[in-house]
Automatic annotation (TrEMBL):
Pfam families: TIM (PF00121). GO terms for biological process: gluconeogenesis; glyceraldehyde-3-phosphate biosynthetic process; glycerol catabolic process; glycolytic process. Pathway: Carbohydrate metabolism; erythritol degradation; Carbohydrate biosynthesis; gluconeogenesis; Carbohydrate degradation; glycolysis; D-glyceraldehyde 3-phosphate from glycerone phosphate: step 1/1. Belongs to the triosephosphate isomerase family. It is found in: Cytoplasm. The keyword rRNA-binding does not apply. This is Triosephosphate isomerase. It comes from Aquisalinus flavus. InterPro entries: Aldolase_TIM, TIM_sf, Triosephosphate_isomerase, Triosephosphate_isomerase_AS. Keywords: Cytoplasm, Gluconeogenesis, Glycolysis, Isomerase.
Amino acid sequence: MARESLPQSDGPFLLAYEPVWAIGSGRAASVGEISAMHDALRNLAGPQTPLLYGGSVKPENAGALAEIRNVDGFLVGGASLDPETFIKIAAQLNEAERNCERASV
């Protein structure tokens, strides 16, 4: 991927990544795969660009995925169609944020 593929405007944007093989598969990439890709995206897009991960985010993995360096948020697909599931994902993210705040004190 080249810098030329990113927006050329001065306005803010965010960048979402999902492995092609994860689309509709129900499988998330490994922590190592996500970390490597998001590190590369960070180098490409810069420190101010929010980077979202979008591959099969579920309540069972949202907390762990949120702890990966350079993952700033999620692009939730199918799980967003069920309000209860989506709320569980949000709860996992809130818990991960609280854990991060406790660790930095």
